[in-house]
Amino acid sequence: MPPRTRGGYTSSAPRRRPTGSERRRRVQLREVEPTTDPDSVEHPQHDRDEHEEVFEGAPGGPIDRCILRSFDKHIAAKIWLGEDRAPLKLVNHGAKLQLWELDMERSRIYETVHRSGLASLTSCSHRVASRPMLSAFCERWQPETTTFHMPFGEMTITLDNVASILHIPVTGSMISFSQPLHVDDANALLVELLGTTDVEASRETEQCRSPSVRLLWLRDHFSTITDASSDDDVVFATRAFLLHLVGCTLFADKSATSVAVVYLELFRDLSMVGSYAWGAACLAYLYRQLTTATRFEVRQLGGYVTLLQAWIYEHFPEMFSSPDMSYTESRPRALRWRPHVIPDSLQSVRERLDRLQISEVCWEPYEDHRAEHPFPDIAWYSGCIKCGQVVEPYHPERVLRQFGYIQTIPPRPFTPPRPDRSILLVQYWERWTDHLLTDQSRGRRCLYSGSGESVPEYMAWYDRISHRIVQPPQLRSGSTTDARSSLPSHAASTSDTRIARALTSLRHVISGGRDQSADYFWGALNEAHGILSGSDETSASHSTPSPAPACHSTPSPATRPFFSPPTFVYPPRASVDPPPPSDDPPPLIVPPPPASVAPPAPTADPSAPAPDSTASTTVYVHSKRKKKT
Fold first, then answer.
1. How many CB atoms lie within 10 A of CB 547?
2. Predicted confidence (pLDDT) per residue in 508-519, tens digit
3. Which tens digits make up the pLDDT trace of 380-402?
4. What's the per-residue H, E or C state across 522-569?
5. Which residue intervals of 167-301 are DSSP H helices?
6. How many CA atoms lie within 13 A of 519 on its CB side?
7. DSSP code per residue over 93-126
8. Cα-flanking dihedrals φ and ψ of residue 45, to 5°?
9. Closest CA to 58 of 49, 47, 69, 48
10. 3-class SS of residue 384
């Protein structure tokens, strides 16, 4: 029999190389080649294939890991197994911005910065950031969905949050770089756009050991230039100031002292600086920094921490926020709060987030801000956002409650394409109006504004694919169980989440007061019973709307504790039928005598036995009990 060749033929002819179709037939699993159609990013594969692998659950994590596939490497998985880490170090340059201020002598630089749309960044940065609070939220960030997984569902930082908190443009050209910048190219860019010499540029990049420059070096060389300087020097100083500004805010990296020179290319034409989507780029960069911080070995968080901290203040106003009573709605919402360092530990904040109730979230915090800053339609954009080589998915369909809509089960999150497909991503972003969520995808609006409703089957689905509790019961404050000897199981996690859901249902009744109907009380008790018994998995959907918290108004400085014990409410009195009518006159009601007049002594009954003179009597003098023998 003739030998079989590699091409699949049985022939004595000379061997030849197989064709592409023949090679593909022999490959069982092959990566799909990228297509040149820009619309390929538009329709990601959300539905699960029937032959797709279903991952088993992890301790303390999702039961079905078809969504959170990398949960084993997540910091929440390590915490559940008894390992922990200290609060993250934060990169915050709020104090450094005040070292280079634009006064009247630098009005020409300020005018250019104002036209760029980045002027608000000079004043809205927080000088203080809370490490325990931000670290606890980083533990709830999931890279696959780019959302925070809270006990009641998903939340995230949207483009609407960026526009309202920072007042920077979220529409415009995508910030994209074809490839990383080499050190030699960085030196040439410094000479061309900042007017430095080759020796100065080379010395600075060598000191940074990367294509970057120090923030201190920018201040020392360009902060002394005023309007009296030459036109070229003013242009150089303007570019240096903008590079210093974005390095301290939007693109703060973990070096904590330098900024990448590649951003200097964005300031080549100063008249085009305002045409970039700075807010989208800032959000993509922060998404990536949060993703990196979810790894157990990471000890530092980069990105614009003011944006993250202000977002927490806006949606959780009763938690750690301290409002500024002099704030006006014409200013960025980041200035609405007075940041401060909380005295709580990381474990304390983690446990408070585990007990967080859906009624304690402010879902729509910008109602009073819409008159000055309308809602941007691009916040409904569903696709990818980009910042240089960073590409991250943006999923508004996973956080519909933040837009005032009832949350439904979202489609599968899509994997972002490779950064080298920048042309396709740019084309997709430029047509963002074609990629907004449709009215059908948005669904129905909530019955009450900011109630945070969801469909009945949402919470049962969320219980399976997410981790709702970060701190294991064995390691909570006051627990005597040793977590190293008895690790929690899925049963413990399920019981804990059921208790939390049942308490949420009962809290709605307790906070509603006595003026509620009996059917409302019975429905809440029945719902709690179904949750605890496990007979009704769909009962914990929070479908019963509760009054929304007054989160859009400025709260008082003396805010109540976030997790105050519930106040006991007496049950309504039972209805009693009135007595039958009678012809007798109503009884005479004698008012009590004044406190200063002693009541008359009762008339002695002759038939009653005489009192024992030896017995002790009790008298009350000034509400104090004394005995008189």
1. 13
2. 566 555 666 777
3. 999 999 999 899 999 999 999 99
4. HHHHHHHHHHHHCCCHHHHCCCCCCCCCCCCCCCCCCCCCCCCCCCCC
5. 183-194, 198-208, 215-222, 231-248, 278-293
6. 1
7. -TTGGGGS---GGGHHHHHHHHHTT-GGGGT---
8. -85, 100
9. 69
10. strand
